[in-house]
Known about the structure:
Distance between the termini: 20 Å
Oligomer: single chain
Shape: elongated
Amino acid sequence: MKINRKLLTGAAALSVGLLALTSCSSGGGSEQGGEAGGGGNADAPAWCGPDEASVAFLDGYIVNGWRKIAAETGKIEAEKCPSVTSWETIDGQGDTQKAISDINGAVATGSNAIIVHTASGEAVLPALRSAHQAGVVTVPYRDGVGGEDETDYDIWIGSDYVNDGETFGNWIKEQFPDGAKILFMSGPAGTTQGLDEKEGLDNVLGGDDKYEFIGEQPFEITDWDPAKTQQVLTAAIAKHPQIDVIVSDYGPSLVGALPEFEKAGRSIPALAASDGNVLGCFWTDHQADNPDFKMMTIKTGTDNIALAVQHAVARATGGEVPEETAYQSGIFEDSTAEDKPVQCEPDLPDDIYLSSAALTGDQQAEIIGR
């Protein structure tokens, strides 16, 4: 998907209401770069400089709604800067060699800045390093690629998973002051997301014997796959007569598994997880019959890309580089707090994320084609 300068200008007039929604993005909105005009563009954010730049977003695998929504969020953020002459989204289609070729191709065709969401880990690092050495602003984000800032690429914009773990831990401590048995579920073995979140959990709950982590350590391995999640949780229910809290960094994957508690004649326990429409609607439908089913969610992070765009555009156009370098999720829903009610849009697709600051639920549904 390639958009030229004229299309960007025309789209701006049609997207005023849409773009206004992005101003409250937690960790990814334009507020991080400031409100002052960039490069003489009176209405542009400070991270938008005077030099024209073409920008390419290379996603390793636009395979699901989350990635489609994130890609559109990045385009919306880039459209705030009149100095961005074109934006191109390129799908690596889950093929590592294609992803590497896509990076090399973006450099060869004259992109001034590239933003990369890899699906291949460190395999793309040599291509990123070559792009960086060629003078192309290079910003990988969210998933780690190895290497170092300013050596292998300009900057990696991650999500503060340790902070997410601390957010989970603080909520658990508040809800269970007398202690709890906690089942923590994350993705593949060794994933830095799960390891960092466990570090955050331990920062808050570690050293206090009242809080016990049960199951495989440092987390139950689910590969973020709903079918495997159901297998893991079913086994945990059979093995552990007491589970007070489930922590999951991909909350929607739990929906197919949580009814196993009801089948076993037990209340669904408290849940601390990432948000998703399917999860919010599940809680809405099941909480009345499950007295222990409290729920808190953090924002799932489709807005993470906005901060990466700001850094890339600032460096490519001569704008003001944002001070923040990591996306902060923050609490989205809390069934125990009146000001953060659980949200559900039953007429919209399961795989949308109402925590998005850039796109409404209806807009996300249109993007994912449901």
